[in-house]
Amino acid sequence: QGCRLALDPAQQRLNCPCHRMAFSLAGEVVNYKIRTPPRPLPSLTVREVDGVVQVYVPPTPT
Fold first, then answer.
1. Which UniProt keywords apply (predicted)?
2. DSSP class of 53
3. Looking at the domain assignment, is residue 16 inside a domain?
4. Dihedral in degrees, nearest 10, Cα atoms 36, 19, 25, 11
């Protein structure tokens, strides 16, 4: 939806200020304030090469 998640290190979770929900660091929903439970965050392939974090984002179907 275009919202930037904020890391809450004390709670070990990611907060979405736009939708007032929170996700575990594994992407599971831990708190929400909407009627329908949201889906977990998608899983992305990540690697570190020479100190640079690379994230593989699959292409969007057309």
1. 2Fe-2S, Iron, Iron-sulfur, Metal-binding
2. E
3. yes
4. -110
- Checking DSSP bridges between strand 13-16 and strand 29-31, what pairing results, if any? unpaired
User: Taking the model in full, what pTM does it have?
Assistant: 0.71
Asked whether the beta carbons of 18 and 1 are under 8 A apart, the reply is yes
Query: Over the stretch 27-52, which tens digit does the pLDDT of each residue have?
Result: 999 999 888 888 999 888 999 999 99
> From CA 49, how far away is CA 54, in angstroms rounded?
7
Q: Which two three-digit tokens encode residue 26?
A: 């594994």
- Nearest one of 49, 30, 55 to 41, comparing CA atoms: 30
Residue 62: inside a domain, yes or no? no
**Residue 1 belongs to a domain:** no
Q: Are 27 and 41 in contact (CB under 8 A)?
A: yes
User: Is the residue at 25 inside a domain?
Assistant: yes
